[in-house]
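so the lab meeting is tmrw and i was supposed to have these ready like two days ago... anyway. pasting both below. for each one the top line is the aa sequence and the line under it is the structure tokens. i havent really looked at them closely yet so no promises
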Amino acid sequence: MKYLLILATTALMSFQVMAADLKSKDVSQWLSAMPTLKSWLTEHEDEISANISDRNDPEVVFKESIAALKKAKLYDELNQKVQKLGYSNVEEWSKVTEQVTFAWMAIEMDANKAEVDAAKAQYKAMETNPDIPPAQKAMMQEMMAPAIAMIALADRASAADKAAVKPHQQKLNNYFNAEEEAESEE
């Protein structure tokens, strides 16, 4: 779950309707900016996440991240950082982050479509199985809900965003896999 929170915090997604389609240069700029921003976000993770109402729900995390920054009085500091990295403001960087992340996830899911479809089918079967006690079903739903929500969010990535991300897929895999490995070491 911490990986989800770090990813969401890294993304600082405002869960807005995605704006203009990504261009390859947007992805390159984002990849260049993230090493600087990731260390800052990791340093302030507890302060930011303390201002998010449900850290286990990715949709809530994405929706409340910018407000959480403001509540933690960290918005201006991050805004200065993203401006030095070529963004107009945190909101612009957040939109690009959202688009890059979801397009990357969508491409990964497309590459593993059979596994994703099997996981969705297992979830649906669990939900409709009358032999699973309600308490056990609720526990399983709670455990699986963030992953299912992330899949739904990734399904929103535009074809243009996926096309812009595709040439950078290996670099993004390295970035996101390093995130996951860092979490598993904690």
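ok protien two:
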Amino acid sequence: MTDDARERRASLARAHAALDAVDAKIRAFGGTTTPSRYLGECHRAHDGVCYGYATRSRARMVLAYEEDASEETVRKDFDYLATAYAEAACDAFGEIGGRTTSERFRERCEALGSDARRREEGTGGGG
């Protein structure tokens, strides 16, 4: 197995563990609603920290950081991601019942971790 494949497998394992933690936090609040959409830290491993977020439409989001991030940075990143998701989900020309595909959403997700976007929006670096 190549190093790239090992890293991909480790990333998937972290994501699944974080999503399980997000589901557990949502259940702890009684099912589908939480007092806040931001769920805070959901999973910590030797190589990073994952934070969770749940939308009103029950979409769950996880952001992974290689090191601890400030609460302000995480919340701003989730605001950025939630806005991108809402724009993609509300595409008037999207296929009904189909998978949400949006080149702009993909680009915004990729840009989320870039230091250039963080500098542009004044949210710090890293992550």
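from a quick look at the 2nd one: The helical segments are 3-28, 71-89, 103-112, 115-121. The CA atoms of residues 7 and 62 lie 17 Å apart. will dig more after coffe
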